[in-house]
Amino acid sequence: MSLKWMAWTLPTAIFFITIACLLVAMTVWQIKAPSIERKGFLPIATTPGDRLFIGLLSSAFIHLAWIGLTSLNLWIAFVLALIWMIVLMRWG
Amino acid sequence: MKKWQDNKAWFMVIPVFLVVAVSAILPLMTVVNYSLQDIFGPDQRVFVGIEWYQEALTDPRLHAALKRQLLFSSLVLLIEIPLGILIALMMPKRGWAASLSLVLVALPLLIPWNVIGTIWIIFMRPDIGLLGAAINGLGIPFDHTAAPFDAWVTVLMMEVWHWTPLVVLLAYAGLQAIPEAYFQAARIDGASTWATFRYIQLPKMRGVLTIAVLLRFMDSFLIYAEPFVLTGGGPGNSTTFLSIYLVKLAVGQFDLGPAAAFSMIYFLIALLFCWLFYQALLKVGTGDKS
Lengths: 92, 290
Fold this sequence. Notes:
The complex is a heterodimer. By secondary structure, chain A is mainly alpha-helical.
């Protein structure tokens, strides 16, 4: 089946492969060491899967805010989002 | 007795996963791909990076449509939730009258969305429409095709008429599930009707009302067919909600790249609200009031 209709580009392919790898890694981690909910600085108790979802969604909004509010390089937003993801996964 | 886990059950999830992949995940990936390119044809496309996102996020028409959408969804909730509870409280609790009123209340839910728009176009026509002509007959000028305020009133009335029954059914189910012992205790204590509602019925309906708020917010936030048929987004752009603007962009102007970027922003906003309401629902389920 040809996937040409999906109009793939290299950056989007890398993006989705990264997301897929993250999901696979989280699944394997969950099977190897089943997680329990815990309370961090977020106002709700979360599992690592919850924190990944919150991290990805908030990272998307960080990028959108950066694009909408500044004309600075988007890589800065990417680094900020990455730091935010790490903080969230560790202490969220 | 030793318990054991049979992971074969996971195979039962595969058909659902395949359906979701084909109907949701692959199209979503395609939209992301489109949002970063200028599409001229099936084989003619140019990578433009975040250009369409910059355009969409600084587009005053999108900001205006988002404000209208949020205002519309807020008004829908402010009207439909109290009205739905009020109607549910007034409905008969048992007997043939209860069954009859349930059927009558549910009737608007059975009508297709585009037909709803057509019904209200005719109903509100200032010359021959039953309500439109009646309002004009009272000396109040009313024309939903010409005046933005009238168009808003009409769209809101249509939405309330169409979807309040869902809130009524949910609230009614919540009320019926309250054990009679609570009301007996309230009567013994001499509680007023208001006190019974405030301290027994309303807290007991918390779960179903949260579901009602979630459903009504998401539905009204994604509304398209009814206002499109009724006003087409007009007069001017006064009832151009996000989905109507998106369709104008994608189908009307065939700007697939900008429309895809807009769709992604729209999707992320909807996903955010969905998640927030989902968290609220979980809290209701656990009884956590924090």
